[in-house]
Design goal:
Blueprint lengths: L5 E11 L2 E6 L2 E7 L14 E6 L9 E8 L2 E4 L4 H13 L6 E8 L2 E9 L2 E10 L1 E3 L2 E4 L5 H14 L4 E8 L7 E3 L5 H13 L2 E10 L2 E7 L7
Parallel strand pairs: 3-5, 9-12, 11-13, 12-14
Antiparallel strand pairs: 1-2, 1-4, 2-3, 4-5, 5-6, 7-8, 8-9, 10-11, 14-15
Helix pairs in contact: 2-3
Length: about 230
């Protein structure tokens, strides 16, 4: 996926989870943050960030914050991007002979990111964006997520009804030694992920190729589920 009208700025502060103050060409402005997660290890005063300018002249904020520089790593922060890059990638890579990939499908009391069909096979996929990195490894979540646990339970329940289930962790940066659940922040999610995997839910993790104005799903990353 590609972003139009991208420019760099300097992060100043984050008054709330929806907006940030940045310094753009010497002027402090308010921008929309396209990620409501904590991102405390990323959005530090003085960090270089990347903005895309909206084409809607009626918006209160003219720019969206989409990426941040963390040391040598450029990390995409757009919470909507993982679904889009998974959709672009899955058409030719997810399962053989894929004939249908439908976004936003409800099953039972859960709403999954994708429903797919390939011949007699059918299933659901939940996509999670990952921005938390420590010592070269990627972790999810960066904040407790009861919604994430519900999705895992829903995927597990769907297996008994003849569906396949998968959760794909889209690591919004290049290179990671491995992916693991963030048991320190939300041990219940890690437990739910391990239980889902034991039941037969596929757990996938892939890095991305990241530039200031693009994001592309890339190589598979080893998954470590042991606590």
């Amino acid at each position: 996926m590609h972003y139009p009208n991208v420019t760099s700025a300097v992060f100043l502060s984050r008054p709330n989870r929806f907006v940030a103050q940045v310094l753009l060409e010497g002027e402090a402005i308010t921008v929309h943050v396209k990620n409501t997660g904590r991102c405390r290890e990323l959005l530090l005063p003085g960090a270089q960030v990347w903005l895309t300018k909206s084409t809607n002249p009626n918006r209160k904020t003219a720019y969206d914050l989409i990426a941040v520089q963390k040391g040598a790593r450029l990390i995409n922060m757009d919470a909507q991007a993982p679904n889009q890059v998974f959709y672009e990638w899955a058409a030719g890579h997810f399962v053989p002979q894929l004939t249908l990939l439908k976004p936003e499908c409800r099953h039972g009391d859960s709403r999954f990111d994708f429903y797919w069909e390939a011949g007699p096979r059918k299933g659901f996929v939940e996509v999670k964006g990952v921005t938390l990195e420590r010592d070269g490894a990627a972790y999810f979540p960066d904040a407790p997520t009861q919604r994430g646990i519900k999705h895992l339970h829903g995927l597990t329940d769907s297996l008994a009804q003849g569906y396949e289930g998968a959760v794909c962790f889209v690591i919004q940066m290049e290179q990671a030694y491995f992916f693991a659940p963030n048991d320190h922040t939300h041990p219940a999610f890690g437990q739910a992920l391990r239980q889902a995997a034991q039941a037969g839910v596929a757990v996938l993790a892939r890095c991305c190729t990241v530039t200031p104005d693009s994001l592309t799903l890339g190589e598979a990353v080893p998954v470590r589920l042991s606590p």
